[in-house]
Amino acid sequence: MSKDCGNHAEDDLRQACRRLLCLLFVLALIVAVIALIVYLVLRPTHPRFYLQDATLRQLDLSNGSTSVGVLSTALQVTIASRNPNGRVGIYYDRLDVYASYKYQQVTLAASLPPVYQGHGDVDVWSPVLSGPNVPFAPYLADALAKDVAAGYLIMQVKIDGRVRWKVGSWTSGHYHIFVTCPAFLVTGGGNGVPGDHGFRFQTATYCRVEV
């Protein structure tokens, strides 16, 4: 008799555990469905990024100890970001900015401070991007020398980071954001302050944003 009672108790416990697990699963499913509906209804639009200014403070190419050249670069940029969403806020948890030339990174990454961007808000940053003694491939050195001689230089200002969306009291998980801003630098004309080799920033540009 006591053995039967023990079996019944174990069965009751198993059934209670199953009910609890089913309840937790249903609750998790409901939360996921609500989050999906909110996302689809509001459908957050990517933030807008603009490169407003770029000043070339240093651009020195020299021969290294091997056949590979060495490039030292310093570039101050002004980047603006706007949240175009009317009901969705954006947390910028990490934003690392660096410069590249023909797909080779030529400066170290500068970290921007984390910030929350409300509806329609605009944030502006002006980091200095420095790359002392960066190894530079010979074919890139030749291309750079030709661009400098021609007085027309195109660099890329890139941002690699992590963002979250905020709708009311709900906050999403992290999303990867990647931003590419072309920086057109010229020796003839331009609107910016003259920098190294006489290069000036030509005009403000829109950036490509991927989330």
From TrEMBL:
<dbReference type="GO" id="GO:0005886">
    <property type="term" value="C:plasma membrane"/>
</dbReference>
<feature type="transmembrane region" description="Helical">
    <location>
        <begin position="20"/>
        <end position="42"/>
    </location>
</feature>
<keyword id="KW-1133">Transmembrane helix</keyword>
<feature type="domain" description="Late embryogenesis abundant protein LEA-2 subgroup">
    <location>
        <begin position="78"/>
        <end position="181"/>
    </location>
</feature>
<keyword id="KW-0472">Membrane</keyword>
<keyword id="KW-0812">Transmembrane</keyword>
<dbReference type="GO" id="GO:0098542">
    <property type="term" value="P:defense response to other organism"/>
</dbReference>
<dbReference type="InterPro" id="IPR004864">
    <property type="entry name" value="LEA_2"/>
</dbReference>
<dbReference type="InterPro" id="IPR044839">
    <property type="entry name" value="NDR1-like"/>
</dbReference>
<dbReference type="GO" id="GO:0009506">
    <property type="term" value="C:plasmodesma"/>
</dbReference>
<dbReference type="Pfam" id="PF03168">
    <property type="entry name" value="LEA_2"/>
</dbReference>
<protein>
    <recommendedName>
        <fullName>Late embryogenesis abundant protein LEA-2 subgroup domain-containing protein</fullName>
    </recommendedName>
</protein>
